[in-house]
Amino acid sequence: MSTSDYDYFSGFAHSFSSRFPAVAVDGDYYDLPGTTVYHTYTQALPGKGRLEVNLTTPEAAAAFEWTIEITLNDKAAGRFIHIIARRDNSVVETYGKTVIPLTPSRSAEIQALLASL
User: Fold this and answer.
1) Strand partners, 70
2) Strand runs (DSSP E) across the chain, as ranges?
3) Which of 13, 27, 38, 65 is buried most, with the most CB atoms less than 10 Å from its CB?
4) What is the arithmetic mean of pLDDT over 57-72?
5) Distance in Å from the first CA to the final CA of the chain
6) Do residues 34 and 27 lie in contact, with contact meaning Cβ atoms separated by under 8 Å?
7) Band (2; pLDDT cuts 50, 70, 90)
8) Is 76 exposed, middle or buried (0-12, 13-18, 19+ CB in 10 A)?
9) DSSP 8-state symbol, 11
């Protein structure tokens, strides 16, 4: 993982979020009632799939380890990818409690996949 990974995924997330309506997520679940903790942006994909980007709000940033969450659930292609960009500028894949460091080859693979959507 490198800072350029963070820069790429951050740029992707912010560009993506500018093209879709925001859905505010209230902090009740996170013990922050009345606070919008993040905004969700979703693009429907064929076969009931979706690409979703979540961006934490400044008001709730301290409550989260991550600033950006990207989830690709491409049911038609049988792919599920879950990326977290953390406050320390690292990027990892997460599946439940399993955290996988992003290798350069995996990062390139995911970047190419996102660019193709």
Assistant:
1) 53, 83
2) 23-27, 32-45, 49-56, 66-74, 79-86, 91-95, 98-101
3) 38
4) 94
5) 23
6) yes
7) low
8) exposed
9) H
Q: Which amino acid is at 13?
A: A
Mean pLDDT of 100-111: 95
Rg (CA), the chain: 14
Band of residue 1 on the pLDDT scale cut at 50, 70, 90:
very low
Non-local (6+) Cβ contacts of 88 within 8 A are none
Mean pLDDT of all residues in 43-55 = 94
Token pair 């500028």 in the structure block, residue: 89
Q: Which residues have C-beta within 8 Å of that of residue 109, sequence separation ≥ 6?
A: none
Residue type at position 79: R
Contact 54, 38 (CB under 8 A): yes
Per-residue model confidence as pLDDT tens digits over 16-46: 999 999 999 999 999 999 999 999 999 999 8
Nearest of 116, 114, 117 to residue 8 by alpha carbon: 114
Using DSSP's 3-state secondary structure scheme, residue 96 falls into coil
Alpha-carbon gap, residue 21 to 95, rounded angstroms: 26
